[in-house]
Amino acid sequence: MDQIEFYQAKLMYETDSWDLSEALNRGEPVVVIDARSKEAYEREHIPSAINIPHRSMNAESTAHLDKSKLYVTYCDGIGCNASTKGALNLAHLGFKVKELLGGIDWWRRDGYETQGTEARPGSKIECGC
Asked: For residue range 21-43, what is the model confidence (pLDDT) as tens digits?
């Protein structure tokens, strides 16, 4: 694999908060999956995200999901791999999936709002990633 193929492949499986936010704002068929525990999701999550903890992802818990959509998994961020485990689980189940770089931590750092009992208002930074 050469460099161009490597970076093209990487972009097929990862996204950043800017691109995710833009896709959601354009109404693209993207579903955001919080792969952390229910408790973590209730404390704080990305608006519109649904919670399916990676440990409980299986054919039954994902039967209601539309396989024609793109699924973006996330977790806390660096030091947590729930988003990777969730992405792998969804891929095994036949879903198109990407992983959010930096998780909810970088989502917040980029100034996007969150929801939940510890929600934070947005102060969007126009980084143009």
From this structure: 999 999 999 999 999 999 999 99
Distance CA 84, CA 92 (A): 12
Residue 31 CA to residue 122 CA, distance in Å, equals: 20
**pTM score, whole prediction:** 0.92
What residue ranges define each of the domains in the chain, with the CATH number in brackets? 19-109 (3.40.250.10)
Positive or negative: CA dihedral 60, 63, 68, 70: negative
